[in-house]
Design goal:
Elements: E1 7-9, E2 12-14, E3 17-19, H1 29-37, E4 41-45, H2 68-94, E5 99-105, H3 111-121, E6 128-132, H4 139-146, E7 149-154, H5 157-166, E8 178-181, E9 188-190, H6 204-217, E10 225-228, E11 249-253, H7 267-273, E12 281-284, E13 292-296, H8 299-309, E14 311-313, E15 324-328, E16 333-337, H9 339-350, E17 355-358, E18 363-367, H10 369-380, H11 413-422, H12 454-462
Parallel strand pairs: 3-11, 4-5, 5-6, 6-7, 7-8, 8-10, 10-11
Antiparallel strand pairs: 1-2, 9-13, 12-13, 14-18, 15-16, 17-18
Helix pairs in contact: 1-2, 2-3, 5-6
Length: 465
């Protein structure tokens, strides 16, 4: 194993080991501060982070306002206060070592307001901003204003070029690095483009070489690239360390950081990680963001898959093969389908899937009454956690909606992620993880149920394992 030399990140030489930031509460001040204390870079999630009461208990994020816009303001207030709280904890836990970054998703609701509110309330405690899930054109401007480094996440050199040419070249002084996130192997939302096949993963090496080549064209020879997605044993990446074609490289660990003593995920989630098999993490496109995402293929994902499977196209008028009448709902509204599809619909209804919900694509899905009520209630209770949402048709635009029909094939991502981090159900909630998560079950480091501290994990990674 090649020696790991320190690398300059956010104004300090640190180990080239970075904690993946993740979303809703999955990394907090305790674990990110521990990563920094171990000599690396800790990254806490700035996505609806938790706050605590005087007893140290998590304050539930409950929304009491009547309108979506008012609930959106409640969400932003929760997020800012939670982000400041976690920044303070991370700073105290780090003991003056390493660096502390905040991770935000550009497509989250109120992203700019939340980020600026946290940076304002935690001045001097945060050294860098990691940002993905969209094209954060204003990220450099915000970072420069608060004099912190920024780290945009990209999955292709094309995305980097677009960000650089449109905005980031104006704030190159504060560009701390580029996070290359492998769109086939990373957990959570992924940057797969429409031209890339989700079933055919590409080797990250030539893609990162191409990224460095473009960076050098713009004078970014010494700006680090942070490799994210699929990184487990550093001995498998020895050819990347000290490689002149790649330049300065750091490695970001998202999935491995889930299984530490400081990780805030529930114990039942940690236990589930140790039993995963290859193939248990799947790419899917049910997210209300419209992005591809990698998560545990559990009951939550299977239900979404089955929901979309019970889907039929229809027409409001007699058109072509849509020549057979089908009446649905309490008002017995009439639409037209093929005769074969009407038979399929009648069979689903006979099996209890009696509720028909129309989609934006002139199709309808068939669900049980309980599921239909859940979908409708979740849509009604939307609090605007995304900049725009396929599931509820919320939008941050002045109109407050996307002017598209809400899509019942998706789900409320805020609700399920909050329940995943604060509950004990890993089968019926959305559980994000990278595609290497099955390695927990075969890695001897975790044998006999061993769960390391962050410091023990960092030391193990430095050894190559």
């Amino acid at each position: 194993m090649k020696p790991l030399n320190p690398i300059l990140l956010s104004g300090r030489e640190v180990l080239p080991l970075v904690e993946g930031g993740k979303g809703v509460g999955i990394t907090n001040g305790h674990c990110s501060g521990a990563w920094a204390a171990a000599g690396g870079v800790g990254t806490f999630s700035g996505v609806n982070a938790d706050s605590y009461d005087e007893n140290g208990d998590i304050i539930p994020q409950i929304y009491s306002s009547r309108t979506r816009l008012e609930r959106h303001e409640e969400l932003i207030a929760y997020a800012i206060q939670g982000g400041i709280t976690q920044a303070r904890i991370a700073h105290e836990t780090a003991l003056g070592e390493g660096r502390i970054h905040i991770n935000v998703l550009w497509e989250m609701g109120g992203a700019e307001r939340v980020l600026q509110g946290v940076l304002e309330g935690a001045r001097g405690l945060i050294h860098g901003i990691t940002c993905g899930a969209g094209m954060p054109y204003r990220l450099g401007e915000i970072a420069a204003r608060y004099r912190v480094n920024y780290y945009p996440i990209v999955s292709s050199t094309r995305a980097f070029r677009a960000l650089w040419k449109r905005a980031h070249h104006k704030f190159s002084e504060w560009l701390g690095g580029i996070v290359y996130e492998d769109p086939w192997r990373a957990g959570g939302h992924n940057g797969l483009s429409n031209s890339e096949d989700p079933e055919l993963p590409e080797d990250p090496y030539p893609r990162v070489v191409a990224l460095r080549r473009d960076m050098r064209l713009f004078g970014l020879d010494e700006t680090p690239i942070l490799m994210a997605g699929g990184v487990w044993y550093l001995r498998e990446w020895q050819d990347w360390i000290g490689n002149p074609d790649l330049g300065p490289i750091a490695f970001q660990f998202g999935t491995r950081g889930l299984l530490t003593q400081e990780s805030p995920i529930p114990n039942v989630w940690k236990q589930r990680l140790t039993s995963l098999k290859d193939g248990d993490i799947k790419l899917h496109r049910y997210s209300p963001t419209g992005f591809w995402a990698s998560s545990l293929n559990n009951g939550f994902i299977r239900e979404l898959s089955q929901r979309s499977h019970r889907q039929l196209p229809f027409s409001k008028e007699l058109v072509g093969t849509h020549d057979t009448e089908f009446a649905f709902g309490p008002r017995r509204r009439k639409v037209y389908m093929t005769s074969q599809d009407v038979l399929r619909a009648e069979n689903w209804i006979a099996n209890g899937y009696t509720e028909c919900l129309r989609t934006p694509d002139s199709t309808m899905i068939f669900v049980t009454p309980d599921k239909a009520n859940q979908i409708r209630n979740d849509q009604i209770e939307c609090m605007g956690c995304l900049s725009q949402c396929r599931f509820s048709n919320w939008s941050e635009a002045p109109s407050g909606n996307t002017h598209k029909k809400a899509d019942p094939r998706s789900f409320c991502i805020q609700k399920t992620l909050q329940q995943a981090i604060h509950g004990n159900d890993v089968e019926n909630e959305l559980i994000f993880a990278g595609h290497g998560a099955h390695r927990f079950s075969s890695d001897p480091f975790y044998s006999n149920g061993f769960i390391p501290t962050v410091r023990q994990l960092v030391e193990r990674i430095c050894e190559g394992d």
